[in-house]
Design brief:
YycH; Two-component signal transduction system YycFG, regulatory protein YycH; about 40% strand; eight-stranded mixed beta sheet; alpha+beta; YycH/YycI_2; 3 domains; nine-stranded antiparallel beta sheet; single chain
Length: about 425
């Protein structure tokens, strides 16, 4: 009998020890679980593939200067755009010389000299451009961002010129050593001779002399669920609390981070004000951090391009613009709108760490949609439209975009002209 009682007491002591060990290892006084077992952790859903930063860095357009004041434009994913860009990526550019932008006669170069102009609308850090082009910048040039690269040759030149425009607007960097011959430039320019001719008055924007053929699409659309976003953004999505705001938006928080969902506009906004700073940051480093963050928290549901990396107070804002389209008609940006936030991924970073993240919850199924070729007006028809809207404010840029419209469970992407004005405003023309 005594032996049986001893056995029971020993068993209770062992059980008590196991319980105490559990609390010592898995619990902290006054807090939730400090360590999560595998069956409690919800793995992130694969909402989109991971992306490489090199695939997010490309010019928004390629302007071909044919000489004799003739020009044409190639857009991403079109035949000659791909061919020329691939060739330029294989060339090297070295020994950069800093010069004033006024030291060149750009109007004359544009109208008389054959050349290729690559446009990066909001600019790209040189440290990132090195990932897609063979550059050997000095420390001064490496800290710059450029919004244009102009490669051209003159009548009596024995070598090609390669000029990189700083986003500051007053400085350019010319490569004294460029692995390009005059014949190389002419060969690339010749690809544009049989293409749609464009005209320009001052180089700010270009008007096609005939209608432009683009692909319109009607695509099945779906939504990422709140559960998918929670599991992507919170370590323990089961520990979040739900709050419904008066404006109808929904907030999910674990007391440190918050996820706000706007069901009306299919938009999510995530913030983590407690994120620890990574230390020194630059434009290039913050873009790389932003790409890694999207890779880990949602992925890329389509083709995206680095749109901007700009400072705002002590923060840096990094945005990626979605492009739609493919060979041979080209790819164009999908327009983000106040009532339909689609096509844009935005992140805010403080000292190299992501503290805010926004994107659409909507995605489309491109392989199941219907497509057709439509035409955007060009020539005199387009010029008359532009004349009617540019009397008070100068036009800064003109380019095709896709206007997204939701109709039931379908997403319509309709090509339109986007007009950007010098005062920062913009509008669309059909």
């Amino acid at each position: 009998m005594k032996e049986r009682i001893k056995s029971w007491i020993l068993a209770l002591l062992v059980l008590g020890s196991l319980v105490e060990s559990y609390y010592l290892i898995y619990r902290l006084p006054g807090s939730d679980s400090a360590v999560f077992s595998e069956n409690l952790y919800v793995k992130t859903d694969n909402m989109g593939p991971e992306g490489k930063v090199e695939n997010l860095l490309f010019p928004d357009k390629m302007i071909i200067h044919l000489g004799n004041n003739k020009h044409t434009l190639f857009y991403p994913s079109s035949t000659f755009y791909n061919l020329i860009l691939t060739r330029l990526k294989g060339r090297s550019f070295e020994s950069f010389q800093r010069r004033s932008v006024q030291s060149f006669n750009w109007d004359k170069i544009r109208s008389e000299n054959p050349g290729i102009e690559l446009s990066f609308r909001s600019g790209i850090p040189v440290a990132l451009l090195q990932r897609v082009m063979q550059l050997s910048p000095d420390s001064l040039f490496a800290g710059e961002s450029v919004d244009r690269i102009w490669i051209y040759s003159g009548k009596n030149d024995s070598k090609a010129h390669a000029v990189f425009f700083s986003t500051r607007g007053d400085i350019v960097y010319e490569a004294a050593k460029a692995d390009l011959t005059v014949q190389d430039v002419q060969q690339h320019v010749d690809f544009g001779k049989s293409w749609t001719p464009y005209t320009t008055s001052n180089g700010s924007y270009y008007v096609p002399e005939s209608n432009l053929s683009l692909m319109a699409a009607e695509l099945p659309s779906k939504l990422y669920t709140v559960e998918q976003m929670q599991s992507s953004l919170f370590f323990d999505s089961g520990s979040t609390r739900y709050i419904r705001e008066k404006d109808g938006s929904e907030i999910y928080t674990d007391s440190k981070r918050s996820l706000q969902v706007d069901q009306e506009h299919n938009w999510m906004s995530y913030s983590d004000p407690t994120a620890l700073p990574a230390g020194e940051s630059t434009n290039a480093k913050d873009v790389l951090e932003a790409v890694d963050f999207v890779n880990q928290h949602g992925g890329w549901n389509g083709t995206y391009k680095l749109e901007a990396a700009e400072e705002s107070d002590q923060d840096r804002l990094v945005s990626f613009q979605q492009y739609y389209g493919s060979y041979p008609y080209g790819a164009y940006p999908v327009l983000d709108q106040p009532k339909l936030h689609y096509g844009l991924i935005g992140l805010r970073l403080q000292q190299g760490t992501v503290t805010a993240y926004e994107r659409s919850l909507m995605y489309s199924e491109d392989d199941k949609g219907s497509k057709k070729i439509v035409e955007l007006p060009g020539g005199d028809t387009l010029r008359r439209q532009l004349a009617g809207i540019s009397q008070s404010v100068a036009i800064r840029d003109l380019y095709p975009v896709y206007l997204p419209v939701v109709k039931g469970d379908k997403l319509e992407l309709t090509p339109v002209w986007r007009v950007d004005f010098s005062d920062g405003s913009s509008l669309t023309l059909k």
